[in-house]
Design brief:
Helices cover 36% and strands 4% of the residues. It is mainly α. Strands 1-2 form a two-stranded antiparallel sheet.
Length: 96
């Protein structure tokens, strides 16, 4: 497999939101190309008689039915809240 071009490395860096120096771009061009060459080795494996699997543990979805259960009372919940206002827990503004 040919090595990645500098433009391809720059594109990957942009998608990853990484600011790379020219030296880093060359370093990663070599490293990513090497990784892709290694992964390309999987094409050589004969998988003709292999069934696809999505889970190697054999576990199935463990889903429970939705059940309404009693919860903590509002008064008990607010008792330990550091700040409260109008029956709600008051928190710092997250977004301006």
């Amino acid at each position: 497999m040919p090595k990645l071009s500098k433009d391809e490395v720059e594109h990957i860096a942009k998608l990853s939101r990484l600011a790379l120096t020219d030296k880093e771009k060359e370093k990663f061009r070599e490293q990513i190309s090497s990784i892709l060459d290694y992964v390309k080795e999987l094409d050589k494996v004969d998988t003709k008689n292999t069934e696809p699997i999505a889970n190697i543990t054999g576990l199935t979805d463990i889903v429970r039915e939705d059940e309404i259960k009693p919860s903590m009372s509002r008064e008990k919940l607010l008792k330990n809240a550091p700040a409260k206002e109008n029956g709600y827990i008051k928190v710092k503004r997250v977004k301006e």
